[in-house]
Amino acid sequence: MHEFELINKYFSQLTNRSKSSLNLNDDVFFDKSHNLVISVDTYNIGKHFVSFKNPDLVIKKIIRSSISDLICKGVKPNYYFLSGSGNNKTFTTSNLKKISKSLKEEQKKYNIILGGGDTVKSSKLSFTVTSVGFSNKIVYRNRSKDNDDIYVTGNLGDSFLGLMVLKNKIKINKKLSAYFINQYYKPEIKYSLTDHLNKFATSSIDLSDGLITDLDKLINKQKKTYQLFFDKIPISKKLRLVLSLKTLLKKNFISKGDDYQILFTSNIKNRNSIKNISSTKKIKITRIGKILNSWQKTSIIDKNGHQIKINNKGYTHKFD
């Protein structure tokens, strides 16, 4: 059973049609009357992180990917609640010291405070993070308009290559390995863009499951399609180098997930404003496509207008 089938069948009715729950179809809970924005994420070893050999890095990845849910809504996180299940093999004194040190660094970097949490003894290592922010408005999903531009921040694919290096599925030199592993554990979330998203974004989502999968989620309740410009989809110079050296295809890396960049749509009249903010804030923001009406087919095209087929569209949450 797919994630959304599960939600619709068993949990949607439990919201009692509360507007704040956003039909369980967005990144956050948003209580506008109290300016309250909340997101919840769970991370399991073997599924969301490869191992616990580097607990200091794992916890950075978890915190950044969690607050990314608020940031992509145009909301700055203020508090986080951290719960962990593990045992004396995973929660050793050494590991706990490393985790505490990393959390302190993340708190300083993103101006957040630990609000509480819970610990449970378990043979399975797992973390759950609840992120809390305060705002009287957010950027929703499913609010894009016909002919809106599609944008993405940063570069795509570095994190996935880092995962492949960690799994020993790709062999590259130490310097490149260190770069991609760093991108996997410490995604460069765009905190400084938070204050500006509400000014121009018609809809938004963070890229956790992959470009195509998350773009489909962004418009899943709308009668919309899209066109992506394959050659415009941004990748780093280092990834381009590895693709060349290993004779690998760009299309197999751009929609694998764990990028935690912001994918958003915006009216074409905002192009200059977005370009100026990109320059002022020194944030890479790339226009990669446009939203279409449902009578037009979704497509991914290269610079010559040829169709590009991407078989792996990203991660899907299935429970069967």
Strand residue percentage: 15-25%
Tally of discrete structural domains: 2
Task: Note the gap between the termini.
Answer: 5 Å
Q: Order of strands side by side in the largest beta sheet?
A: 7-9-6-10-8-11
Largest sheet: 6 strands, mixed
Reported CATH architecture of the largest domain? Alpha-Beta Complex
By CATH, the superfamily of the largest domain comes out as: PurM-like C-terminal domain
Write a structural description.
The protein folds into two domains: 3-134, 2-Layer Sandwich (60s Ribosomal Protein L30, Chain: A), CATH 3.30.1330.10; 149-301, PurM-like C-terminal domain (Phosphoribosyl-aminoimidazole Synthetase, Chain A, domain 2). Strand 1 and strand 2 form a beta hairpin. It is 31% helix and 23% strand. The chain has helices at residues 3-10, 55-71, 93-110, 158-166, 174-185, 194-200, 211-218, 237-246, 271-281; strands spanning 29-31, 36-44, 77-86, 113-121, 126-134, 149-153, 201-206, 224-229, 262-266, 285-293, 299-301. The mean pLDDT is 94. With 320 residues, it is an alpha+beta fold. The strands form two sheets. It has a six-stranded mixed beta sheet, with helices on both faces.
